[in-house]
């Protein structure tokens, strides 16, 4: 296990070295972006008002702004060129709007997310856990490495894996495998990894070891270790998942955006 930890530490070190180049923009740039962002949202809101006046009656007050947020996030996932502050704002707004939608529509929101989750998802953007933010004194934004999470909600138990890959190849430097449960009402996914595979060599993990490895290397949150000691699992609070993108807030407090990996 010590050699396994050393290996994961090496991968983690590479990850954090790359993250150092994608930190939050300076304040002067943020100010300019905020002005542009406000104008963008104002223009789109005005456009929706005109549409309504032309005879298009909205059935609720959240679906249209949800679509607007997803439009920004889909562009960000495709191009990685959308401003990070605009992406963060869209993530935070989407989280609030989906919370409202879920209160109104109930478990159907969670059911849709769960069904759409099945597949492979590449991490595109993350604010990082609170520990990572504190370490760099800033938020992380576009993720520099190839990290892919996979879910299969059709299996029993439901399956999850998480891998970090060499460059842009299909060679996994390290992968974790486990299972998960999903609370439809809360849109909360709780999971535990019981296998680690550095360079493809699978090693069985005891209860709580995945959390310890994650926390010690920076790949996971310290809160996962605390949860494991209390008999609780690591978790994501899922915001959305559709045919193109998925969004969630992790147990460590960070927001994340994934892009679906489409099979050719």
Itemize the secondary structure elements and their pairings:
Layout: H1 2-19, H2 27-53, H3 63-79, H4 84-105, H5 107-117, E1 119-126, H6 130-136, E2 146-152, E3 158-165, E4 172-183, E5 188-198, E6 203-204, H7 209-217, H8 222-229, E7 234-241, E8 245-250, E9 255-260
Antiparallel strand pairs: 1-2, 1-9, 2-3, 3-4, 4-5, 5-6, 5-7, 7-8, 8-9
Structure description:
It is a single chain. The protein is of the alpha+beta class and 264 residues long. Helix content is 45%, strand content 26%. It has helices spanning 2-19, 27-53, 63-79, 84-105, 107-117, 130-136, 209-217, 222-229, and strands at 119-126, 146-152, 158-165, 172-183, 188-198, 203-204, 234-241, 245-250, 255-260. It has an eight-stranded antiparallel barrel with strand order 1-2-3-4-5-7-8-9, surrounded by six helices. It is globular. It starts with a helix and ends with a strand.
Key descriptive features of the protein:
single chain, about 260 residues, alpha+beta, eight-stranded antiparallel barrel, globular, disordered N terminus
Number of helices: 8
Helix coverage percent:
40-55%
Q: Which structural class matches the secondary elements?
A: alpha+beta
Instruction: Give start-end ranges of low-pLDDT stretches.
Output: 1-57
Ends apart, CA distance between termini = 37 Å
Mean pLDDT: 78
| Rounded radius of gyration (Å) | 19 Å
- The gross shape turns out to be globular
By DSSP, the count of extended strands is 9
Strand ordering within the main sheet: 1-2-3-4-5-7-8-9
Strand content: 25-35%
What is the string of helix and strand elements?
A: HHHHHEHEEEEEHHEEE
Biggest sheet statistics = 8 strands, antiparallel, barrel
């Amino acid at each position: 296990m010590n050699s396994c930890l050393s290996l994961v530490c090496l991968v983690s070190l590479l990850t954090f070295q790359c993250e150092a180049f994608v930190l939050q923009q300076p304040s002067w740039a943020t100010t300019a972006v905020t002005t542009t962002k406000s104008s963008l949202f104002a223009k789109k809101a005005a456009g929706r008002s005109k549409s309504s006046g032309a005879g298009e009656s909205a059935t609720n007050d959240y679906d249209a702004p949800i679509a607007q947020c997803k439009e920004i996030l889909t562009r960000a996932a495709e191009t990685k060129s959308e401003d990070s502050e605009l992406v963060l704002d869209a993530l935070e707004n989407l989280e609030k709007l989906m919370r409202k939608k879920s209160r109104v529509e109930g478990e159907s929101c969670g059911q849709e997310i769960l069904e759409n989750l099945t597949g492979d998802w590449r991490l595109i953007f993350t604010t990082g856990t609170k520990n990572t933010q504190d370490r760099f004194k800033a938020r992380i934004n576009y993720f520099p490495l190839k990290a892919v999470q996979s879910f299969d909600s059709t299996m029993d138990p439901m399956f999850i894996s998480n891998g970090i890959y060499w460059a842009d190849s299909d060679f996994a430097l390290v992968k974790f495998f486990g299972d998960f449960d999903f609370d439809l009402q809360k849109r909360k996914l709780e999971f535990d990894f019981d296998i680690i595979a550095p360079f493809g060599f699978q090693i069985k993990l005891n209860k709580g070891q995945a959390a310890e490895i994650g926390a010690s290397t920076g790949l996971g949150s310290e809160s996962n270790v605390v949860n494991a000691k209390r008999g609780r699992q690591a978790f994501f609070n899922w915001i959305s998942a559709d045919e193109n993108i998925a969004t969630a807030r992790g147990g460590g407090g960070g927001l994340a955006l994934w892009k679906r990996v489409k099979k050719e």
